[in-house]
Design goal:
alpha/beta, about 750 residues, single chain, five-stranded parallel sheet
Length: about 750
């Protein structure tokens, strides 16, 4: 039986669309097929879902005109905050590569391969040939974690007005040379700058020698790179060209990373290559590995070929492997994610094994405001790494831990995904200096500072919104923690995952690498009851005497937009007492007839009409600033001048250069659920038009419905797709290697 939240529409004059106690939804027409961009996807803000595959692109380089070059291809000049983050990431990768080089020397396994990639390739080949048992080559054997290496101080942050690109600056001469090659191959000249920034000063020669390197640029698809290669190479160009095969394998892994994977099953890669007319996908994968484009890993016991039963007469399966052994799973990975996961696993192991258990936290635990808070304090007293999970009310428990650490004279800090989360944590702790956003902490703009070794001057770091932590950011964070620092990862496991690759929080919990404290503090009220049911796959009826939860049925997307504007501008302020400025609209994607683009246009016309003379914006517009992929900072437009668009982002002035406004600023009366993660508003209106049905999942519904503090309105046009998504569409699994790496680490008592 399908049950819906029930309540009354806050607008008594809503004609026949009022929602009463039995507010079910009967679709007048079958749901429309979602158009491109209608599902939650990896849009300009870097959200990581399958919608990334649906981004529009020209059929060939000849048809990739200015829209392609302006929106997808050019590497957008980053703002100061994003530049600092990316520079720190590059520094981290350099340190990781140096450390790996110290651990193992080159092993000859391919004509152009050395170091870790050659080692891994040799391991797999040895297993495939039968020379060595598969179990001899599992990733990361248990060994003592490497000591923390000295972390350099973060790079100096340029002024916000500098507008320096995050990637390597392209010299005019190099860019001109690349533009000439692009023109010769029929590709847009707008790709010249990003090509030079990505491939270096020798990009022109590299593209002429290997045209498929064009696939390394954002937004370029295989059919475009093929057309470019045909124009340059002529008869020499073919679908089985080794250069094409290597580029396609790398491109497939980059696309997988947009969906959150840090590795890709080799079988999936081979099947995908078949779709691009590669005659021998197996040979293509082996060539990509030999060229060092990707690394190869294995998970399980080898089953690549038939094996003879041993002398003892062990039973074997149909594929020749012992009956009690599972087939090997071969994974392909990009070095940046492989190195980040290995560095993160080593760093977490270092924290686990270097924890000082001498401090007496018993009095603080006894004085904790709740039993779950006391349990968390006791866990942090005895472990260098702790996982903590719970809903919105459970955020009070990490706050109590931070306050307890302060009472013991320890240097403790909490970090959050959003500025709104930082504000709420600071209020809970009672100290504004006890909370910073993670991006600000890593960039060095705020926080405790660093010691002489480059580590944060902290004894305890609590990371809230931990599900939003991608593997590269997590590696950079852990690398910056000194031995003995306690790390607590806290978050709600029911929300959408990180925009970047990896599933750090879920992998840490699944690996049982540390104590895991599960909060017993429920979220109160009808919204809390509704969201708790969604978390276990049930869309239950809830009593909402104060109109906390309201269902507004609609027949089509046009009506959904009309009712949403009416709710935000009239009904919610009048019936609930929440002004329009404190009401947030959340919808499934950016495109579509009721996506963020359409809703923001309608809401602007009603709430802040204007000509949009500043790149489509007017003073007073609600906006979201996207300084880096996956990050969304809410704000409002103050003014604009020759310097750029002036924003007020939670009290912090931000200036966006004119050439960056289109790429990094959007209206924000309506947001996607990924953008809304980590933030809360007094009232939320969730819009579910018929063409959004395919983009729904349990984590999406859980995230969207849990953003409201006092009121939740659901503009409902997906009929039975909503309860079906809650019951049957769980979180999309991400392929990662962090869990087995953590499981292979020795425990804190291992000698």
């Amino acid at each position: 039986m399908t049950a819906h939240p029930r309540g009354e529409t806050p607008d008594p004059a809503a004609e026949d669309h009022e929602a009463g106690e039995d507010a079910g939804v009967q679709a007048a027409d079958p749901p429309a097929t979602p158009d491109e961009g209608g599902a939650e996807g990896a849009d300009d803000d870097g959200e990581s879902e399958e919608g990334a595959e649906n981004a529009e692109s020209p059929e060939s380089p000849e048809s990739a005109e200015s829209a392609q070059g302006a929106e997808e291809a050019p590497a957008a000049p980053a703002l100061s905050e994003a530049e600092a983050e990316l520079a720190a990431q590059r520094e981290l990768r350099l340190r990781i590569e140096q450390r790996k080089a110290e651990k193992a020397g080159p092993i000859a396994a391919g004509t152009k391969l050395s170091g870790p990639a050659a080692d891994l390739l040799a391991a797999v080949r040895a297993v495939e040939s039968g020379e060595t048992p598969g179990t001899d080559f599992f990733d990361s054997p248990a060994s003592a974690p490497a000591p923390r290496r000295t972390a350099p101080a973060p790079p100096a942050r340029p002024s916000p007005a500098a507008g320096t690109p995050a990637a390597r600056a392209a010299s005019p001469e190099a860019a001109a040379s690349v533009a000439a090659v692009l023109a010769e191959g029929g590709a847009p000249e707008a790709l010249a700058r990003p090509a030079t920034a990505t491939l270096g000063e020798g990009a022109a020669g590299l593209l002429r020698e290997d045209p498929w390197q064009l696939l390394s640029l954002p937004g370029v698809r295989p059919e475009q790179a093929d057309g470019f290669a045909r124009a340059l190479l002529g008869a020499e160009c073919g679908p089985d060209d080794e250069r094409r095969a290597a580029a396609l394998v790398g491109w497939l892994l980059e696309r997988a990373a947009l969906r959150g994977h840090t590795a890709l099953d080799a079988d999936e890669a081979r099947k995908a290559l078949e779709g691009f007319a590669v005659t021998d996908p197996e040979e293509a994968v082996q060539h990509a590995v030999a060229e060092g484009v990707v690394l190869v890993f294995q998970d399980g016991v080898d089953a690549t070929g038939a094996q003879e039963p041993d002398e003892a007469g062990e039973d074997t399966g149909e594929d020749g492997t012992p009956a009690d052994e599972e087939p090997v799973r071969v994974l392909l990975g990009l070095d940046r994610y492989a190195l980040a996961e290995e560095s993160l696993a080593d760093g977490l192991g270092r924290l686990v094994n270097s924890c000082d258990k001498g401090a007496d936290w018993s009095e603080s635990a006894a004085a904790a405001p709740s039993p779950s808070a006391g349990e968390l304090i006791r866990a942090a007293a005895t472990a260098g790494l702790v996982a903590h999970s719970g809903g919105e009310s459970a955020r009070a428990e990490p706050a109590a831990l931070i306050a307890a650490a302060h009472g013991l004279g320890l240097r403790a800090l909490g970090t959050t995904h959003s500025t709104d989360g930082r504000r709420r944590l600071a209020e809970a702790v009672g100290d504004a200096r006890s909370a910073v956003t993670l991006s600000v902490l890593l960039s060095g703009e705020d926080g405790p500072g660093r010691d002489a070794d480059g580590a944060f001057a902290l004894d305890l770091l609590v990371v809230l919104d931990a599900p939003q932590l991608d593997v590269e950011t997590a590696a950079m964070l852990v690398e910056s923690l000194a031995d003995g620092t306690r790390l607590v990862l806290s978050g709600d496991p029911g929300v959408l995952g990180s925009a970047g690759a990896g599933r750090v929080f879920a992998d840490v919990i699944a690996a049982r690498a540390c104590p895991h404290v599960v909060s017993r503090t429920p979220d109160p009220g009808p919204i809390g009851e509704l969201v708790s049911g969604i978390g276990i796959g049930e869309l239950a009826q809830v009593e909402a005497p104060g109109k906390e939860v309201v269902i507004v049925p609609v027949r089509d997307a046009g009506e959904a937009v009309h009712r949403t504007v009416q709710l935000v501008a009239d009904s919610v302020p009048r019936a609930i007492g929440v002004p329009s400025s404190d009401t947030q609209v959340i919808t499934v994607g950016h495109g579509g007839s009721a996506g963020t683009t359409a809703l923001n246009a309608a809401l602007k016309q009603r709430l802040n009409p204007g000509p949009g003379r500043f790149g489509g914006f007017d003073p007073g517009d609600r906006v979201v600033h996207i300084p880096a992929p996956g990050r969304a900072v809410p704000g409002s437009v103050v003014s604009a001048d020759a310097e750029g668009l002036h924003l007020d982002c939670s009290g912090t002035p931000v200036v966006v250069a004119p050439d960056q406004v289109e790429a990094s600023v959007r209206h924000s009366w309506a947001l996607s659920a990924h953008q809304a993660a980590g933030m809360r508003w007094p009232a939320v209106v969730v819009v579910l038009p018929g063409d959004a049905a395919q983009g729904l999942s349990r984590p999406w519904v859980y995230t969207a419905f849990s953003r409201g503090e006092r009121h939740l309105s659901v503009v409902h046009g997906v009929d039975q797709a909503l309860p079906r998504a809650v019951a049957e569409v769980p979180a999309q699994e991400r392929t990662t290697r962090l869990r087995p790496l953590l499981e292979a680490l020795p425990g804190p008592d291992a000698s």
